[in-house]
Write a structure and sequence with these properties.
single chain, mainly beta, three-stranded antiparallel beta sheet, 79 residues
């Protein structure tokens, strides 16, 4: 399965991902601001799918690491 993400965030880990026993896990990191992330999945022989997730801003009182990688929109990939 190959995944793409649209919005202020990024996919973390392997991509494409191999199914194991018909299942898989992907990780998506938001940009820590209010936005929408659309994650699309496709694979030869299977019907493509997508999900849109609404993200919320991080409160100012939350202790966040200073070196988070998701600070800019990721490159949008469409096939």
């Amino acid at each position: 399965m190959t995944f793409t993400i649209e919005g202020l965030g990024q996919l973390i880990g392997e991509n494409p991902v191999k199914l194991r026993a018909g299942k898989m896990i992907i990780l998506a990191q938001s940009g820590f601001v209010q936005d929408k992330l659309t994650i699309r999945a496709k694979s030869d022989g299977l019907r493509a799918a997508q999900v849109t997730v609404r993200t919320e801003p991080v409160s100012v009182n939350v202790d966040m690491p200073a070196n988070l990688p998701a600070k800019q929109p990721t490159q949008q990939v469409f096939h």
